[in-house]
UniProtKB/TrEMBL annotation:
PANTHER family: CARBOXYLIC ACID TRANSPORTER PROTEIN HOMOLOG (PTHR23508:SF10). It is found in: Cell inner membrane. It comes from the Bacteria. It is a multi-pass membrane protein. Its main location: membrane. This is MFS transporter. The chain crosses the membrane at residues 31-53, 65-84, 96-116, 122-143, 155-180, 186-205, 261-283, 303-323, 330-347, 391-410, 422-443. It comes from Geopseudomonas aromaticivorans. Keywords: Cell inner membrane, Cell membrane, Membrane, Transmembrane, Transmembrane helix, Transport. Belongs to the major facilitator superfamily. Aromatic acid:H(+) symporter (AAHS) (TC 2.A.1.15) family. Residues 31-448 form the Major facilitator superfamily (MFS) profile domain.
Amino acid sequence: MTSPTRVPTAGTLDVQSFINAQPISAYQWRIVLLCFLIVFIDGIDTSAMGFIAPALTQDWGIDRSTLGPVMSAALIGMVIGALGSGPLADRYGRKVVLVTSVFLFGAFSLASSFCTNIEQLVALRLLTGIGLGAVMPNATTLLSEYTPERKKSLLVTSMFCGFNLGMACGGFISAAMIPAFGWRSLLVLGGVLPLVLGLILIVWLPESARYLLVRNRGMEKVRRALAPIGRDAVAQAKDFSVPELKTVETRSALAVVFSGAFRAGTLLLWLTYFMGLVIIYLLSSWLPTLLRDGGASLEQSAVIGSLFQFGGVLSSVFVGWAMDRYNPHKVIGAFYLLAGIATYLVGQSFGNTMLLATLILLAGMCMNGAQSAMPSLAARFYPTQGRATGVSWMLGIGRFGAITGAWFGATLLGFGWTFTQVLTALLVPALIAAVAIVIKGLVSHADAERAPSYGGRELPAAQ
């Protein structure tokens, strides 16, 4: 079923052009900060099991190989959360799905701290993962729809580095909290923080103006959402528009993601993100354990392991800056390639603590820098009608790479592979990711913010 096409009239204010023309307001910086805090806490909670694992196996007297289901449970939940939340956000709104997801993962993370056996922990981490998986794509989508073109990649990747910072801080926090208060304390922290933040989001986080416009939620709601950015221009506007409103409308946001204009790009985004998460989650899940096996103390393993995530904090802003100035696909591809090389060198440096820590930091800068840029690239690729779905499905399908990485690490360790052999194997997914994203730039490089049609085709829009 279709609805009438909206045609811009005299006095119509183009939302993206308006945002592009204004200096970044305090209102927009508040959105950046809130989205940053959301993904920061997401990062702390996501990384928790990797840092808890050594203490948990010791406390419960279990073999590390039995932790495979625990490591994978939250990741499976993330797949469910990501795949389900995008279509919901494109239909019912970014804010409502985002706030609900924050409360969801906070409540179940807190409940996980009271587990007494592996089965309970697996179940609750699965439920926690549903909330975690829904958070990232919707924070990315909402922020991207409030940012000017000239700073979009920079701001979105800067927000996304909050995830890397959260994962890195998880290591530093666990190094301090677990010896003093036990492994359960990290789960308590990962539950209380999002519950408090959720209350703040209800009051201070706005709904996307572009979503309100495309979904016909009323001109006054759009006006209120945009007014803090430039009150005079918004007050004088008789109507509002975005390029997507000129397109034929259909019922499903998935029709946008899988339309001929986007199909090839969608599949290549999925492949790239999948391979990146294979590397990240194998290292995040098992690096502290591998270091511990090599003779490092519990505290040293947590701190050195966290350097991998901290590296992403250092590089994400630079990658976003470079994407706004150069070919973003080549920038990301180069970082994936460098990440594979750096990871290989990490495997060759075992035994030299200082060199090992330096190379882990470098690998994290390259790998997490590239991966942090992917949601920004996806958000620019898809139009408003399918943006949340496009971003969330890339993240959701990519989570299978996270599951594969965590499982792959357990399998290789079970086969008796060494530290060096495990990290050498990661050259393969790094190379695949680099090649896939460069090909995507060649065959499907359009930017939804700059063009209302692709290859002569009209874009389908969600009703």
